[in-house]
Amino acid sequence: MSITHTNGIVTIAASNTPATQKRIADYECDGTNDEVTIAAAIAALRTSGTVTLTGASQAEGANYTSQGGTVRFLSGDYNLDATLTITAPHHVRLEGEAGAIIHAKMTDTTNGIVFDGTGYTYGLNRCEVLNLTFVGNYTSDEVRSGDLLVMDDCQYNMVRGCHFVKSGHDGLVLSSSSDNKGAEDKNVTNCQFLGCYRHGFYADGIHDLVFANNQSEENAQSATLGGHNIYMVDVIGAVITGSCSEDCANGDDLHIDTSSWIKIANCEFENDVDIDIRANAFCRIANTLISTLTLVGGNSTAFDLANVSPGTLAVTQGTTSQFRMVGGRSGTTSITASYVFFASHLVTSDLSTTCTQFNIVRGKMVMGAITSDNVTIAGCSKLSAAVGGKATISESFSMTGCHWYLAEDYEIECSANYAMINID
Prior knowledge:
424 residues, mainly beta, 37-stranded parallel β-sheet, two-stranded parallel ribbon
C-alpha cells in the first residue's frame, strides 16, 4: 500500500470503522491480529533526526530527537491477539479519535501494548498515548490478559485522556530499571482506571511524576494478587493532584511504598491511603479528603498536612522526624515521631502520641495517652480528655489560654517544669 500521510501522521482504521472514514486511512485492520497492522503503521514513521541540546544533561542531549510521529486511530475496535512491542522510533504518539478502543484479547496473561526502551542507554524517549480506550479481560487468575499499556525504560512520557478498563493485570504501568534509563518525567492526566484485576495505575522506579485529574475506581478485583487503585513504589518526586480514587475492591485507594518527595493536593480518597517514605524525605498532603490515612517514615522524615480530614490517622516515623498538621479534622489519631505540631486542628476521638516535642496551637483535642519530653499547648478552645488517658512528660509541660475539660481520672505526670496559665 502506498502511504499518503503528511506531517508525520499515519492514520489507521479498524475493521468496523465507518466506510466514510476508512477512505482517509493509510492502514486498515481486519479485526484479527491487529497488532501486526499497527506495528506496520508505526514502522512507517520517520526514524532519523537528532537534536543536541547545548548545556543539557547527557540523557537529555543524547535523546532529544526529531524522529517519530503520530499514529492516529479512527473510531472502531482494534483487537490485539498478541503483544505489540514498540522499540523505535523515539517520539511515537498513539492518538485516538472518540470511540477508538484497543482490546487486549489474550487470555494467557500477556501484555497489550509495550513501549520498550531497554535497548537504549538512556531509554526510549517521548512516548505519548492520547485519547485511547484500552479494554482487557479476566475470568480467573489463570485466564486473563496482562497489563494494558506498559512504558518500560521510557523517558519523558505523556498519557492523557485515556481509559483503562478491566485489565487482566494492571491498567497502566510506568517502570524503569535504573535512574538514567527511562526514569525521568512522567505525565499522566485526565485518565480513568476502572475494574482492573490488580492495580489500576502502577509506577515503579521512576522520577518526577505528575498524576493529575485522574479517576481510579473498583480496581484490585483479584482477591489473591494484592492490588490497589493507585500503586507507586520506589518513586522519587511525585505530584498527585485533582484526582479521585474510590471503591477499591481488595486494596487501598492509594498505596505508596519506599518513595520520597511526595506531594498530594485537592484529591478525594474514599477509603484507605497508605504512604511509606524513605529516610531523609518528605510528604505533603493538602486539601484532601481521606477515610483512613496510614503514614510511615524512616529517620529524618517530614509529614506536612494542611486541611486534611482523615477518619482515622496513624503515623509512625523514625528518629529526628517531624509531623505537622494544620487545619482539618481527624478521628482516632496515633502518632509516633520526634516532633509533633498541631495548629487549628480538631481531633474528635482519642489522640495518642509518643514524641520528643509535642505542640498544639488553637485546636480542639480529645487527649489520650501522651508520652513526650516536652509539651506546649496554647490557645485551644477546648481540650477534653479520654477516660483512662494519661500524659507522661519527662521535662516540661506548659498550657496557656485554654479551656480544659478534664476527665475525672485523667492524669498528668510531669517530672520537671510545669506551668498552667489562664486555664478555665
